[in-house]
Design a protein that fits this description.
single chain; about 550 residues; mainly alpha; 27 helices; about 75% helix; PPR_rpt
Amino acid sequence: MLTNTLLSKNLLRQPAMAPVEDIISKIESLHNILEVLPSSSSYAKLISYCCRMRKVDAALDIVDKMGEAGYMLSTHRLQSILQICEETYDYILVHRIYSIIRRHHHHLELNGEICRCLIHFCVRLKDFERAYEMVNELQEMNFKPTTAMYNAIMAGYFREKNIVGGLTVLKQMQDANVDPDSQTFSYLISNCETEDDINMYYEELKQFDIYPTRQIFMALVNAYAACGELEKAKQVVLDSRIPLKCLNEIKSVLVSALASHGQLSEALAIYEEIKKAGHNLEPKAVITLIDELRHISGELEGLLLLLKELSDLNYWVDGCFRVIHYCVENNHLSCAVDLFKQLKDNFESDDTMTEVLFDAVYSLIAGSKSSRLQFGLDLLWAIKDELGLVPSRQCLDFLLSACANSGDLNNARLIWREYEVAGFPYNVLSYVRMYQALLASGDQRSADFILKKIPRDDAEICTVISACQKTYVDKVKSVEGEKKKKIVKSVEGVEKKKNVKSVEEEMKKKNVKLVEGEMKKKNVKSEEGKKKKKKKKKKKKGTEKKQESEVSVE
């Protein structure tokens, strides 16, 4: 009683920041001083405290000690530990939990939920072989396999799109004499590839006298839509066996199915019907509508109206991120800033969450076109000036990468200065990004200066640098080579023209000389001919005169 009182009033009421290990150590020291063993309730309180602090390893240590002390292990406490593992995604701890159960199963009354969780964790680790082994080993511990355990394996196979593996589970259930339930058939129907398969499993469902549940109707809607039978999917919601309380949820599934299969206008029409009836669309269906609508330009108003439909914060953040994505792609700066303001207001007490969301948006801009880069820069100045927010290092990293990809040196220098303004020292990655930006813009001198500041002790960094040099330096050389070729061609062309002109002029001169020579020869010949003719005429005249004189003498 004394120990329990101290546990309740003192040690377990220490500040939340007190290390769990210190608490356990103090309690063990206290029991050693008193020379008594901790009671079962003392262990239970310690386990509860560890679960509240999310210290699963410490809780399992206590469960192990509890079993070694011969105490009965509480199924409730073990389920609490499994729940924490589920919430924190610590599925890997299934091996340790199962080991403790194997060692102390005589002090533990297993139930279906504990065994289902164990199988489910193995499946989440994609260790299907171990999941099957665990089913058989639990049977050896006198725990008969349940439908829920097999359903967990089947769901895992279908999640991995392993249809054959999922159908094999059904055969395993038959061999183990475990009957399927409505959840089993909802998995089978949801993953049918033909209408005949849908009808076959629906008939089998009737043979097992399983009444169609909400999951079955939802599975039918999705299966018909996947097979392209959208009219039959619409007919499902008209079934009179659907409980009125489930109708809105099934209609929401129909909205999602129609929207994701190219029937957005019909999906929106059913959404309007649901609203007129005074009901709300299920959050998943709203997200589907936002996701489909954001691919159509000019739908900002509709997207904002859908976003208002989401009251659950997690779904709202998901939807808000998608609408901001639309704003980035369509240059709606003022709307993006307003949505950032709403995010800030919702997470004002959680700076880390705000930073994560902002970084996620800027990841859309990194590696994008120059138009999105300008949007990202405008958004950066807006959230600084209007919201008073300091950009995170990752946000600046994304923008610097976008500048590098676009070869935008001026904006790269602006972002470079923002690191100093925000109080972030330059690191290896920021130097590498700036080096890339300088190379991309052709500023080789500044790039060489930055390169000297980058340590070369990391093989991956050296690989990135080599890739940058190969991409940008070779590109510059290629451009210079092309320029040289053009210059050479231009020079050769000019020289060719000159040579042609020179040849033409030479030919012209030769032709002129030839013509002149020919003309000269012709003139000479002509003169000689004339002289000869004159001589002949004179000779002829002389002869005639001689003859005349001879005649006169006679």
